[in-house]
């Protein structure tokens, strides 16, 4: 599949081409290169922008300036959801986003995005590095003309904000909920209506009743957008999105043009970003949750076991259907679930058992 095939519309191709001309490729002198990276996030978006800054800083310093990366926020060169097209077509060398954004191009990306009830962030990272996930991601992303690296992770996300209580699976029926990915298909199967609207429009939509609920990321980002001011209940656990890798993708021709040492430097920058971003999410989400509860009286609610059991049953059907989309989807699904089956007993014996033993206020106090 050719990379240019992924620029879906003539208008999109024209826009990317025109923007590429408006931002001419940097000159190469004395073996020095300057690349451009556009994120799908706005410049300086809380937590989400951290990864690209870490990558650019690491690459510049580790290469002693032989490769530098100039950063652009969403829409500064190409529209946010045409970022993949811009990178694949060579208008920019790098992009940063979220696998769910590109599922319409490659259905197998559903299994690099969050899969309901599947794996934790730590398990997902282990799968990428030790379970064949990186190789499969390279295979899938190569069909779009790009090289893939994990470039951050949101950690477990919330089940969402709602203005109505959920006491049983039937309470989802008729609710309009901003959501995406495989989780939104599960919500649809249990009677809710998934709605796709930009996050900036969510507060007003919740206030007006245009939507009954919304999911985004976690406490820090959610509070930054004011969701705690327009929704009554903050539901957990994050069954829909137990992890959330942020994808760094590089034009294949640009990637292949690098010397071996520069490839290792770029890879190292992405590895560092992947670790730093998840650490920042955990630290700042912890503080934000404390602020929400203590200063804004946010009502934290947990979905009960019966509701979660039914959501799990429906999730299995939805995920199995997604795995049947094509041969690559099945290959990635089989790899992820095989790794999950192998690692789950260990995770239950270690992380889960420890969490159950460590009461919130024992033994050191909250």
Describe the fold and architecture.
- The protein is α/β, with parallel strands linked by helices.
- It has a domain at 3-154 and 243-282: 3-Layer(aba) Sandwich (D-Maltodextrin-Binding Protein, domain 2), CATH 3.40.190.
- It is 45% helix and 14% strand.
- The chain has twelve helices and eleven strands.
- Strands 7-6-8-5-9-11 form a six-stranded mixed beta sheet. A five-stranded mixed beta sheet has the order 2-1-3-10-4.
- Helix 4 packs across helix 5 (133-142) and helix 5 (133-142) packs antiparallel against helix 12 (327-357).
- 45% of the residues are buried.
- Mean pLDDT is 92; it is low at 1-21.
Strand order of the largest sheet: 7-6-8-5-9-11
User: What is the CATH superfamily of the domain at 3-154 and 243-282?
Assistant: Bacterial extracellular solute-binding protein, family 7
CA distance, first residue to last residue: 55 Å
Number of strands: 11
CATH fold-level name of the domain at 3-154 and 243-282: D-Maltodextrin-Binding Protein, domain 2
| CATH class descriptor name of the domain at 3-154 and 243-282 | Alpha Beta
Shape descriptor reads: globular
- Mean pLDDT across all residues, rounded? 92
The share of residues in extended strands comes to 5-15%
Structural class: alpha/beta
- Encode the helix/strand succession as letters: HEHEHEHHEEEHEHEHEEHHEHH
Question: For the report, how would you describe the main beta sheet?
Answer: 6 strands, mixed
Radius of gyration equals 21 Å
User: Any low-confidence stretches, pLDDT <50, length ≥5?
Assistant: 1-21
Measured as a percent range, the helix fraction is 40-55%
Separate helix tally: 12
Q: So, CATH architecture of the domain at 3-154 and 243-282?
A: 3-Layer(aba) Sandwich
């Amino acid at each position: 599949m050719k990379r240019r095939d992924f620029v879906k519309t003539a208008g999109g191709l024209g826009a990317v081409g025109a923007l590429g001309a408006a931002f001419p490729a940097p000159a190469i002198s004395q073996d020095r290169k300057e690349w451009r990276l556009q994120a799908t996030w706005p410049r300086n978006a809380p937590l989400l922008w951290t990864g690209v800054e870490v990558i650019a800083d690491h690459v510049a310093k580790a290469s002693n300036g032989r490769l530098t990366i100039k950063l652009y926020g969403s829409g500064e060169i190409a529209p946010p959801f045409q970022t993949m097209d811009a990178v694949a077509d060579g208008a920019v060398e790098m992009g940063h986003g979220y696998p769910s954004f590109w599922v319409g191009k490659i259905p197998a990306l559903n299994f690099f995005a969050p899969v309901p009830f599947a794996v934790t962030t730590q398990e997902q990272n282990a799968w990428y590095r030790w379970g064949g996930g990186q190789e499969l991601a390279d295979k899938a992303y190569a069909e779009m003309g790009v090289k893939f690296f994990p470039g951050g992770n949101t950690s477990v996300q919330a089940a969402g904000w709602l203005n109505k209580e959920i006491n049983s699976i039937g309470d989802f029926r008729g609710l309009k909920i901003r959501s995406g990915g495989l989780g939104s298909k599960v919500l649809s199967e249990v009677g809710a209506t998934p709605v796709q609207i930009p996050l900036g429009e969510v507060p007003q939509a919740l206030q007006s009743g245009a939507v009954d609920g919304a999911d985004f990321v976690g406490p820090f980002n959610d509070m930054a957008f004011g969701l705690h001011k327009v929704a009554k209940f903050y539901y957990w656990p994050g069954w829909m999105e137990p992890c959330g890798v942020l994808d760094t993708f590089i034009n294949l021709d640009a990637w292949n043009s690098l010397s071996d040492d520069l490839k290792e430097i770029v890879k190292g920058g992405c590895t560092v970003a992947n670790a730093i971003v998840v650490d920042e999410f955990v630290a700042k989400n912890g503080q934000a949750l404390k602020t929400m509860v203590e200063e804004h009286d946010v009502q934290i609610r947990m979905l009960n076991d019966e509701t979660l059991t039914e959501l799990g049953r429906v999730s299995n059907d939805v995920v199995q259907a997604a795995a049947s989309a094509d041969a690559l989807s099945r290959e990635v699904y089989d790899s992820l679930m095989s790794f999950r089956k192998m690692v789950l007993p260990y995770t239950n014996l270690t992380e889960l058992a420890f969490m159950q033993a460590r009461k919130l206020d024992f033994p050191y106090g909250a």
